[in-house]
């Protein structure tokens, strides 16, 4: 499992964002985005089929007046052996995500 966050308003990677990987309300892994806005290895080598959530602490990055203090991305794993990459494009008043490669 990998992720990255790009700050589209600033045009740069979003470094230092805390991210949690959860399933069924249980935390599986946590990490922080590096200087390139990436977490290159989050969680186990393979994920069991099921529904997972990535929770991004965007409030700490955007500041105390952040409109989105947290971004949660829920996704379904069908093939746990396949690599999963879920990026987030972030700005002060919007965010988007997609299935990455």
Automatic annotation (TrEMBL):
The keyword Transmembrane does not apply. Its EC number is 3.5.2.17. Signal peptide: none annotated. One of its GO terms (biological process) is purine nucleobase metabolic process. Gene3D superfamilies: Transthyretin/hydroxyisourate hydrolase domain. PROSITE patterns: TRANSTHYRETIN_1 (PS00768). Residues 1-100 form the Transthyretin/hydroxyisourate hydrolase domain. Homotetramer. Belongs to the transthyretin family. 5-hydroxyisourate hydrolase subfamily. Catalyzes the hydrolysis of 5-hydroxyisourate (HIU) to 2-oxo-4-hydroxy-4-carboxy-5-ureidoimidazoline (OHCU). PANTHER family: 5-HYDROXYISOURATE HYDROLASE, URICASE AND TRANSTHYRETIN-RELATED. This is 5-hydroxyisourate hydrolase.
């Amino acid at each position: 499992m990998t992720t990255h966050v790009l700050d589209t308003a600033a045009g740069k990677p979003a470094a230092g964002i805390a991210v949690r990987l959860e399933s069924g309300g249980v935390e599986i892994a946590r990490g922080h985005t590096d200087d390139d806005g990436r977490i290159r290895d989050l969680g186990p080598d393979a994920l069991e089929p099921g529904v997972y959530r990535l929770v991004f602490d965007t409030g700490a990055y955007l500041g105390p007046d952040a409109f989105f203090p947290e971004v949660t991305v829920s996704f379904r794993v069908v093939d746990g052996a396949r690599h999963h990459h879920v990026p987030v494009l972030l700005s002060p008043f919007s965010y988007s995500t997609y299935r990455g490669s």
